[in-house]
Amino acid sequence: MKKLHRNIHNWYQHHGRQTLPWRNTDEPYYIYLSEVMLQQTQVKTVYERYYFPFIERFPTLKELGESKLDDVLKMWEGLGYYNRAKNLHKTATLVHELPSDIEELIKLPGIGKNTAHAIAAFAFHQPVPIMEANVKRILCRIYKLKTPTEKELWEYAYRLVDRDNPFDYNQAMMDIGATICLPKNAQCNLCPLESICQGKVDPGLYPMKKKRLVPTREEHIVIHSYNDRLSLSQRSGKFLHGLWGFESMEVPPCAAEYLGEVSHAYTHFKLNCKVYLYYESSPEQIHYFNLDEIRELAISKVDEKILKLLEKTIETL
After folding, report:
1. Would you state the pLDDT for residue 314?
2. Which CDD domains does UniProt cross-reference here (predicted)?
3. Is 97 inside a domain boundary?
4. What is the chain's mean pLDDT, rounded?
């Protein structure tokens, strides 16, 4: 095992993505932020567009907790999965410093088992493994696991972790999965784990792929307009919580003008929206904004598309 860990460490020194900013800090808040941003989001997107502006706006966990949720959501705009931002903010209102204990970390909003392990390993250098998608795939191939449970994966992960150098080991495991142990066309001859990999003869078998059908949801979106201002409301449900958006209605008003359709793909479903514009003779809603004010609000990607459709329609009139 020591030889294997040495091979992994050497590989990381020569091929790892060591220049990523969250890999060059011991600040728990920055590492925590990166882990949350990287959930369901590509490294390139986080690095180029979100990580630095967010830290510049909220440089400490304390300042993040003292900020308004609306401001946090605005900085998060475009990253999606807005519950991540909401839980990040909520955690910041509860603690100004992150605990080093995994069980204490898991008690905080939005911090699951893997995020807690990542913070412990990267910020506090504890000898624990992490468990993201790339690492899961590597473990499945090393141990020929087709449909393992989470419990089994964690058991194998703890068995394999380099307890002397958990930082480089875990970073290397993610990079190996991202660049070598790929879902398709795995480059086993370049992998520092090849000597122990039981699935290298046919890596595509591990893990077994699950067929997933993505349902389509249809909605009617009505843009209420009064005195050249548009009505938006702040969402309170679980989906897109805290973001501002246009109203969804079962049946649009008879006098509403049909503008067209927009669609947006989420992880678990596709959303198709038929968009209508309704001119009110008197204010019927609570909040109205002009276009410049709307651009300052935190809105979802689908609402951005609806707004662009409206602006395009206005330009052609």
Report:
1. 77
2. ENDO3c
3. no
4. 94
CATH number at residue 305: 3.90.79.10
Residue 260 structural domain: 216-316
Global confidence as pTM: 0.79
Helix (H) / strand (E) containing 265: strand 257-265
As beta bridge partners, residue 47 has none
CA 212 to CA 218: how far, in whole Å?
19
CA–CA gap between residue 109 and residue 83 (Å, rounded)? 10
DSSP structural state of residue 271 = E
Whether 140 contacts 156, CB under 8 Å: no
Identify the segments of the chain with pLDDT beneath 70: 316-317
Residue 40: what pLDDT?
Answer: 86
Tracing tokens 């609806």 back to the chain, one arrives at 306
Q: State pLDDT tens for residues 121-150.
A: 999 999 999 999 999 999 999 999 999 999
Active site residues: 35
317 exposure class (CB count in 10 Å sphere: 0-12, 13-18, 19+): exposed
Peptide bond into 166 cis (omega under 30): no
Counted domains in the chain = 1
